[in-house]
Amino acid sequence: MKKELYFGVAIMAMILIGVAISMPAPSEMTNGHLGLLMLSLIVVAIMLGFPTAFTLMGMGVIFTYFAYDQDIQKTLDLMVQSTYKVMTNDVLISVPLFVFMGYLVERANLIEKLFKSLHLAMARLPGALGVATLVTCAIFATATGIVGAVVTLMGLLAMPSMLKAGYDTKMAAGAITAGGCLGILIPPSVLLIVYGATAGVSVVQLYAGAFFPGIMLASLYVAYIIIRAKLNPKSAPPLSEEDRKVPLSPVLDSLKRTYGSSRAVSALVNGMKGRREGNLTTGQVANQFFVAMLPAIFAAFILGLVYSSLTAPKEAAFDTSGLVSFGSEYQGSSSSNYDFGFDEPAGAETTEAAPALEEPTEPAAAAEEPESTPAPLNFWISLLVVVGVLLYYYSRLSFERLEVFKMLLTSFFPLAILILAVLGSIVFGFATPSEAAAVGAFGGLLLAAGYRQLSFPVLRESAFLTSKTTAMVCWLFVGSSIFSAAFALLGGQELVENWVLSLGLTPIQFLLLSQVIIFLLGWPLEWTEIIVIFMPIFIPLLPYFDIDPLFFGLLVAMNLQTAFLSPPVAMAAFYLKGVSPPGVTLNQIFLGMIPFMFIQIFAMFVLYVFPQIGMWLPGVLYR
Question: CA 524 to CA 436: how far, in whole Å?
């Protein structure tokens, strides 16, 4: 028997022994104890390999049958109602669309171009290949959200490159597995959609809340790679001159031969008005010059928008000085001065006292044109900084760097625009998650078509895999809904709540206990099973400890990432082992994952100490 099998059998034995010890005698067993027995049997059955969704449904129906005193009609009614409740959940509409977007982006073959352009762009950094691997994984995981696909593809692409460059095997494995798991946390994450639907939390707020923690975690990974490569260059050697060499396009190569070591901008300007080798036309050179000027054009566009927003004319305030609020003529007088009786009609004696109406006059402010507001000093300082950065950039822009920029333009920026369009429309309230997911799916189609990878077989395979994944998620929700209803009906939830509250835990202690349980559950179970089975147990306890479900969801997402990287049952390790070169062992992958696991635990600690990292953006945008 393999070690993994021994470990799984040991965990199941511990669960069964614990249940046998904690359960009372059959004569003293209550419905609440039946609920806890059902919960433990669910975990064991899933570990034995039974399908999660149908195991949840089967257990739920069987125990509901006993809870209703063997009334089959009520049991079937509960099953139908739970299924209908799930199928009418609008949040789940975005799941197939985001999954379809991910499969299309995966099949557009962008990841190889993205990895190559990034590692050339970061060639001067210590640990350049490791940093490029992490950044590629983060971008690709954000676009796809499928951990297994990202780890597998990067294992095929980056692992041989890093081993060939002399990287430590453990460091290379850790970078790939840690970067691939970032899709669990960074939006648009399917996990956050499932958590939001389960906990009743806005997916929009979850996406906004996960944005900065995801960036923080990815930055900590990159910082670790750079520091380790700086302290121990043997673990991450710098790229050789051959690996740093950038092949130039014919136009740039011709200009470089013509003007020698001149900078790219001056050579392009001279090429448009001066001599040119070969058959170069002015249009070809002008096209390259336009590409080189894109950063300046983009900066000018953004600064122009900011300037127009800051200097927009303020609308004239309406003059209300002549208006009198209703009842103000009675302020300051005692009620005894007025007769509130009903002996005579209202207004019979007060007509003479009514103030005379004056001819309406046109307000002076209405005749004046609104004046524009001058831009503040901070804008001009920012403008000088941007101009200085652009001048420095163009003064050092060589032909090779321009070629790398063109590579990024065709690999990184399309994905970045797609991700920003999807996330921006959600976070800023322009679209619901379902509408943004539809935009993302359409963008995935455009990307695949733009890179000439869109064909009927690709479309058919993406649609099939999307249907398969969506069916799994929906059946999981149906099974979870039936299971949760049965668990609550048996009184298991009430029993758990009474037990937790009897411990007298503080909010910190409850958070520690819940996160440790979730971390341990991440060994034998997938994140979908943890969310749909155990979140309905934890969520009702949060109000007792004054914990925001949104903040709890961010901790859970980061925690489940940690579970993916924690030996001995780390799914990311098995994904990578399946595509690694023959010399890479599972133990080396495990050892490489451990430092990143500790970084994730540290990131969870930082998020807990400074909750505004995750709560600031939702608070600014939606509360």
Answer: 34
Tokens of 305: 């928008």
Q: Which residue has the tokens 């380790």?
A: 228
Distance from C-alpha of 516 to C-alpha of 518, rounded to nearest angstrom? 5
d(CA 151, CA 141): 9
CA neighbours closer than 13 Å in the CB half-sphere of residue 303? 16
How many other CB atoms are there within 10 angstroms of residue 324's CB atom?
9
DSSP run (H or E) holding 518 = helix 507-521
Helix (H) or strand (E) holding 577: helix 571-577
Backbone angles phi, psi at 238, to 5 degrees: -65, 155
Which helix (H) or strand (E) element contains residue 141?
helix 128-144
Match 């969870």 to its residue by tokens. Answer: 604
Task: Give the integer Cα–Cα distance in Å for 384 and 100.
Answer: 44
Q: Is 331 helix (H, G, I), strand (E, B) or coil?
A: coil
Q: What residues does each domain of the chain span?
A: 82-234+410-623
Give me Rg for the CA atoms of the chain: 32
The pair of three-digit structure tokens given for residue 89, joined into one six-digit string: 């959940």
Q: Where are the beta strands (DSSP E) in 448-588?
A: none
Which of helix, strand or coil describes residue 297?
helix
Give the tokens for residue 311: 């200097």
Q: C-alpha distances in angstroms, 33 versus 30, 63, 66, 436, 502?
A: 5, 11, 13, 44, 17
Burial bucket for residue 590 (CB in 10 Å: 0-12, 13-18, 19+): buried
Per residue in 328-351, pLDDT (tens digit) is: 444 444 444 444 444 444 444 444
Query: Please, is 269 exposed, middle or buried when counting C-beta atoms within 10 Å of its C-beta (0-12, 13-18, 19+)?
Result: middle
pLDDT tens for 230-270 read 888 888 888 777 777 788 888 888 888 777 766 788 888 87
The residue-averaged pLDDT of 81-95 equals: 80
What is the rounded distance in angstroms from the CA atom of residue 492 to the CA atom of residue 30?
10
**How far apart are the two ends of the chain, measured CA to CA in Å?**
55
Please tell me the total number of residues recorded for the chain in this structure. Answer: 623
- Residue identified by tokens 């099998």 is 5
CA-based max dimension of the chain: 107
Task: Give CA–CA dist 358/360, Å, rounded.
Answer: 6
* Angle of CA points 156, 466, 115, to nearest 5°: 25
- The amino acid that residue 525 corresponds to is L
* 23 contacts: CB under 8 Å, gap ≥ 6: 29, 33, 36, 37
CB of 215 closer than 8 Å to CB of 617: no
**pLDDT at 343 (0 to 100):** 46
Q: What are the C-alpha distances in Å from 268 to residues 190, 289, 406, 409?
A: 46, 6, 15, 19
Distance CA 573, CA 566 (A): 9
pLDDT tens for 27-79 read 666 666 677 777 777 777 777 777 778 888 888 888 888 777 777 888 888 88
Which pLDDT does position 314 carry in this prediction?
64
137 contacts 150 by C-beta, under 8 angstroms: yes
Q: Is the pLDDT of residue 524 over 80?
A: no
